[in-house]
Amino acid sequence: MSNSTPKDDVLLDIKGLKIQGFSDERWHDIVKGVDLKLCRGQIMGLIGESGAGKSTLGLAAMGYTQPGCRIIGGSIHFDGVDLAQLPDKQKRDYWGNRMTYVAQSAAASFNPAHRLIEQTTRSTIRFGIKDKSSAYQDAFELYDALNLPEPETIGDRYPHQVSGGQLQRVMTAMAMSPRPDLIIFDEPTTALDVTTQVEVLSSMRTIVETFNTAAIYITHDLAVVAQMADVIKVLRYGEEVEEASTRDMLKSPKADYTKSLWSVRALQKQEQKPTASILSLKGVDAAYGSAKVLHKVDIEVPKGSTVAVVGESGSGKSTTARVITGLLPQTAGTVVFDGIELPKALADRTKEQKRRIQMIYQMADTAMNPRQTVRDIIGRPLEFYLGMQGREKANRVLELLEMIELEGSFLERLPSELSGGQKQRICIARALAAAPDFIICDEVTSALDQIVQEGILTLLLRLQKELGLTYLFITHDISTVKAIADQVVVMNQGLVVEQGSKTAVFKPPFPDYTELLLSSVPEMDPDWLTKLSAKRKRERN
Amino acid sequence: MIDKSETYSATGEVGAAIEKRTIWSRFILDFKKSPYTARFGLIVVSLYIFVALFAPWLAPYGESQVFPAPYEPWSEKFVFGTDQIGRDILSRLIYGARNTVGIAVATTFLSFLIGGALGLAAAINQSWLDQLLSRSVDVLMAIPSLIFALVLLSIFGTNVVNLVIIIAVLDSTRVFRLTRAVAINVVVMDYVEAARLRGEGIGWIMRREILPNILPPLIAEFGLRFCFVFLTIAALSFLGVGIQPPTADWGSMVRENASLIQFAQYDIKAGLTPLLPAAAIALLTVAVNFVVDWFLHKTSGLRDEQ
Asked: What is the CATH number of the domain that holds B279?
């Protein structure tokens, strides 16, 4: 963020880059002639929805393409050398030396068989930048700078012995160890909880600034990129939409597409007055084997409203959903649905009870059978619960498709032939097919891009209004809560921390945990992270 | 810079338009790109099937038609000569395709029916039923299958039905293991949970939700299992407890004419006669494996790097 160092020294200069990928037996354009200029010490944010070509472009900045991709035009000048023309053997002298990469999933990127310190310093030692003892010493200092606990000994652990957020920071240390000129961050915080994300972001930014390293930060989260980048480049369909400095971009985005990205966060639902409960959990305890995960959970869900359950992973949100659906019978307490106590186990519930409670999953990919067409997926609940056959069923499937804003041409498609947002819509249609009263939405938007998220949320709101549905909306994203909820339940470690109407919960004073959760949500203000870090530091001292 | 209309529509979301193809045109397309080994395998397999289906029309003589001329050399009248009691070798080779291949196919189908169904049930249940079946299978697999088959055949008597059932049961242990292993990965998917939440029965979950998703490895295994079953039947026939005379069968044909091999130093053709059924077995085994290899490669989803 700081503008103290002169930034006219161009480090990376990409001109007219074109990359193709091979699928379905032909070559498709992924990146269609993008220019990119990055100076030493500058951080550029690349944003765009999935399929925009941002990861491909990020990797291409290192002269690398994934298997099945090829560079067909343009140049990639790194410090005066055109990487696009260089053979792999020579490019390898740059990789892990002068340019490094931080991947999205740290857990999948570390070798589980080696200690962290060995992996952190490996390329530094291999390229002879430092000898073993000084590389280790330097790693300790990096760990310390990244706020990792016990910097002297954490390196002796194996990847599975540290948390996800810590692992992501170790990966940053690994990328920083050879003191590269350029680091590519590929969605490094997407897989993390908000509370962890803040810590990782601020330590990443500090260290990049300390060593004046140039970086490309790839993400689809605007608020995150606002904290990290000096310059933002927006990509769509493999082409550049616009590029501007972070402050200018936030203040006055020019292209319509960029404006539409910005507007997503503005979605807000008018809160409804609570009515009679359709579902209530009273003193529910639940356990996986001997590990108790829910402690005396009480939740009231008013009819026709949306109750958002908020908390980080491991807080018991999804377990609550499993208890309600009957997949995990509770060990104590009751679940009352529409005045009648539900049997604990799924097998003891009537078909009618099963029909009235439907569920929509986080990963639409795995929630649909890849071998069934849209017609089969939506048609089955109609046939199963309502006994529809033939023409009646076919008509109803078409009606449902229309409800979710898709056309009849989708009937014969398989899930693999749909985009992420379309898949989630089909899952919604499948839930609607059962004509339910109550739908559990388990993180239904968290795997989607912002603009697609908005579409899904608007659809859910419209359906609620038209059909009088009740939602239990599980999420960790506060802006989603603001967009859709009437009531909010905050959970932490299997306990309900706070519960009430949206305005009541989001109005100070907060209980400690709610405060931490709310203050960790990135805002669209480039100074937000700086202010927050300073505030938290003050409070600690 | 691009400037496209930004009104959002779900239908308009980017999704690769995939051309619809019929199964047949897909097959033709795949066949054109297939390696030579796979084409060879496909041609050989279809040839065997053709011979097996049309044996009565192709064979010059009847299956067990005896001529008063045992051990006749190769000639115009008997292309590959006659056997120890004067039956035409060529005709018996052709009928053998029908019996040996037919029984092997039936046995493999039966073993997949048993092993597949139990494997799926075990994967879905994952508690007492899984334990019971898996441990029983372990016990069965601990006994060498050829010896076990010999023991069972001598207890129950040697006929085609017993042969098919015994080999199918013994072989289904391997199918059980594979099915259970691949099905366990599918059982944990959300769409299976969704089907359970809907209240679907175990039959539907097995047939409609899981089976279509584990079919590729099962089909590949089917090809390999077929070869093993085929070889087991041939081995049992060679030992004299398999398919019984006068039914023509390649395994027993090798045994019956094995002694001819010692005349190879006088008449090379006589020496080759017992090798003909053996070669028929070997050729089919190799061909089936070529096809299976190709299929495995095609469905493994590995993208070849350029």
From this structure: 1.10.3720.10
Q: How many CB atoms lie within 10 A of CB B215?
A: 14
- Residue-level pLDDT at B65: 84
Widest pairwise Cα distance in chain A: 76
Question: How far does the CA of residue A472 sit from the closest CA of chain B (Å)?
Answer: 17
Nearest to A367 by CA among A315, A279, A297, A429: A429
The CA distance from A25 to A27, in Å, is 7
**Nearest chain B Cα to A258, which residue?**
B6
Model confidence over B8-24: pLDDT tens digits? 555 555 444 444 556 77
Q: Which residue of A has its CA nearest to B214?
A: A371
Give the model's pLDDT for residue A356. 92
**A325–chain B Cβ distance below 8 A for any pair:** yes
Tell me what pLDDT residue A256 has.
83
The pLDDT of residue B303: 44
Residue A276 one-letter amino acid:
A
A15 within 8 A of A83, measured Cβ to Cβ: no
pLDDT in tens, A178-221: 989 999 998 888 767 777 788 888 888 888 888 889 999 998 77
Higher pLDDT, A68 or A321: A321
Answer yes or no: do A243 and A302 share one domain: no
The minimal CB distance from A367 to the residues B4, B14, B191 is found for B191
Residue A229 sits in a domain whose CATH number is 3.40.50.300
Chain B contact probe: residue of A70, A369, A443 with most B CBs at under 10 A: A369
Query: In this structure, are residues A39 and A9 in contact, taking their beta carbons and an 8 Å threshold?
Result: yes
Domains: count for chain A? 2
**pLDDT digit string (tens) for B226-267?**
888 888 888 888 888 888 878 888 888 888 888 888 887 887
Q: Cβ contacts (< 8 Å) between B301 and chain A: which residues?
A: none
Give residues 188 to 247 of B whose Cβ lies within 8 Å of A: 189-191, 193-194, 196-200, 208-209, 212-213
DSSP string, A139-199: HHHHHHHTT-SSTTTGGGS-GGGS-HHHHHHHHHHHHHTT--SEEEEESTTTTS-HHHHHH
Residue A228 has phi, psi (to 5 degrees) of -95, -40
Q: What is the DSSP letter of B127?
A: S
How far does B177 lie from chain A, in Å, by closest CA? 23
Range of the domain at B262: 35-295
Q: What is the predicted pLDDT for the residue at B133?
A: 94
Same domain, A79 and A194: yes
Give the Å distances, CA to CA, from B272 to A167, B91, B269, B292. Answer: 68, 16, 5, 30
What pLDDT shows up at residue A355? 92
Q: Which of these ranges, A46-60, A194-208, B7-21, B37-51, has the smallest mean pLDDT? A: B7-21
How confident is residue A4, by pLDDT bands cut at 50, 70 and 90?
very low
Whether B33 contacts chain A with CB within 8 A: no
Identify whether B25 is part of a domain.
no
pLDDT above 70 covers a percentage of chain A that reads 97
Residue A286 belongs to domain spanning: 278-369+430-507
Nearest-angstrom CA–CA distance, A179 and A167: 19
The predicted pLDDT at position B5 comes to: 40
Lookup: tokens for B306: 């350029």
Q: What's the number of domains chain B is made of?
A: 1
For chain A positions 336-365, those within 8 Å of chain B (CB to CB) are 346, 349, 351, 354, 358-359, 361, 363
For residue B14, give the 3-state DSSP assignment.
Answer: coil
Residues 6-45 of A with CB under 8 A from B: 22-24, 28
